[in-house]
Write a structure and sequence with these properties.
The chain has helices at about 1-20, 50-60, 60-80, 120-190, 195-230, 255-275, 310-380, 385-420, and strands at about 45, 90-95, 105-115, 235, 280-290, 300-305. With about 425 residues, it is α+β, with helices and mostly antiparallel strands. The protein is rod-shaped and about 140 Å long. The strands form 2 sheets. Strands 2-3-5-6 form a 4-stranded antiparallel β-sheet, with no helix packed on it. A two-stranded parallel sheet has the order 1-4. The longest helix has about 70 residues, at about 310-380. Strand 5 and strand 6 (about 300-305) form a beta hairpin.
Length: about 425
């Protein structure tokens, strides 16, 4: 009867293991509108996805690139408030007749040339700069969204690895107890030596799986720490499912970035059409003339205006490049919108499939645990050999592991749907 008690404990342990796995933060109720369970607070030593994303953003190269792009746009915005279209220039000139008649004639001139705005050019330049600033902000949000996808993937991979290790630990402990009990019964003469060998083999197999699960957990934790710089694991209990999240309250960051790129290209076309010639230059200076050695110098004020011509040779390539940039931006935005719609549909279907698979795996695990319990009773009655019971226990444990994996897969599917919808943690 002592063996029967141990075998019953193994069956119960398998059931408890499945329950423990399903009670992890990765547990997600099934159903199209099901929500993640609420927790009274984050588990000890865990951080929310928002905190992890902020930590990862501080370490990301994309953050430095976004910051640099925004600073460049802000600097361009400041330049549009200038009174001149380009930096002024200083002009100096001097001539004399030293190499000709050497009569003492000299002429010295100093002046400043200021490029002027063309009509409507300053307003068009200001509009272009404002569009560039908006694009820089949109690029930052899009970069944060892409980084959020990496954080979500790493978080769910770490949580799934933790669940698998918990299941492997429970199964290894249960099989160790069974192997010890069988060994005692073999020494007592109740069971054959072959039964002890079979139980010990199952124990070694469970230990190998336990070591493999521990190695995967360490690798997942290393990737998480490398990405976020945090040693605390993710707390996914407060994650909001995509079905319950407010959709449409804010534009998708990738679509917003594409729209700002299109607007910037349109503003550049407008700027080009107001800049069909180089900036005219207004020059103001003074000139001193010395007619000869015996004559006094004469001073004068010099005012000049330089008007460059705008020819087709100059304007056609610039206009073609601006229009091509606008056409590419419009096409990219349209294709991106279609791709996002397709990705959302695929992500929703993947979530529904994961929910269905989790229901099936949960039902299968319940059936196999019940089957293991019935075979245990048969073994107690002496009607079933130990190998059959070991196979039943292994099948039940594998089913519980499948439930744990599928629970994590459902959480990951929902996280990917949130990512596709453009929702930040």
């Amino acid at each position: 009867m002592k063996s029967s008690l141990w075998l019953s404990a193994c069956v119960i342990a398998g059931s408890l293991a499945g329950g423990l796995v399903r009670a992890q933060p990765a547990d997600i109720p099934r159903g199209p509108s099901a929500a993640l369970p609420s927790a009274s607070g984050p588990a000890a030593g865990t951080v929310s996805l928002r905190t992890a994303l902020d930590a990862a953003w501080q370490r990301a190269v994309a953050a430095r690139e976004s910051d640099g792009q925004r600073r460049r746009a802000e600097a361009d915005r400041a330049s549009t408030g200038s009174f001149w279209a380009a930096p002024p220039s200083l002009a100096l000139g001097h001539r004399d007749d030293r190499l000709q008649s050497n009569a003492g004639k000299r002429e010295t001139e100093i002046g400043v040339a200021v490029p002027l705005w063309l009509p409507g050019q300053r307003a068009a330049r200001s509009g272009t700069v404002e569009a560039a600033v908006a694009q820089a902000l949109a690029a930052e949000q899009a970069a944060r969204l892409r980084l959020a996808g990496e954080v979500r993937e790493a978080a769910w991979q770490l949580t799934a690895s933790q669940s698998e290790l918990t299941q492997a630990d429970t199964q290894a402990q249960a099989l160790k107890q069974l192997a010890d009990d069988v060994e005692r019964r073999v020494r007592a003469g109740d069971l054959a030596r072959a039964d002890a060998l079979a139980a010990h083999a199952e124990q070694l197999s469970a230990s190998a799986l336990q070591s493999d699960a521990r190695q995967r957990l360490q690798a997942a934790r290393a990737r998480w720490t490398l990405l976020t710089g945090l040693t605390a694991g993710p707390d996914l209990s407060a994650a909001t499912p995509a079905d319950a999240a407010p959709v449409g309250t804010s534009p998708h960051p990738e679509l917003q970035l594409a729209g700002q790129a299109r607007e910037l290209a349109r503003k550049r076309v407008e700027l080009m059409r107001h800049s069909r010639r180089d900036a005219p230059e207004l020059s103001v200076g003074v000139r001193q003339d010395v007619p000869g050695r015996a004559e006094g110098s004469q001073g004068s004020l010099v005012v000049g205006l330089r008007l460059p011509f705008g020819t087709d040779d100059r304007n056609r390539p610039l206009e073609a490049a601006a229009l091509a940039e606008l056409d590419v931006a419009e096409t990219h935005e349209q294709r991106l919108r279609e791709r996002i719609d397709s990705d959302i549909a695929a992500a929703r279907e993947a979530q529904r499939s994961a929910e269905t698979q989790l229901d099936a795996e949960t039902a299968r695990a319940g059936l196999l645990r019940e089957r293991a319990s019935l075979i245990d009773k048969s073994f107690r009655a002496g009607e079933t050999p130990l190998p059959d019971l070991l196979r039943a226990l292994a099948a039940a444990a594998q089913a519980d592991s499948a439930v744990a994996r599928q629970t994590g897969a459902l959480g990951l599917a929902r996280a990917r749907l949130q990512q596709t919808l453009g929702l930040l943690p």
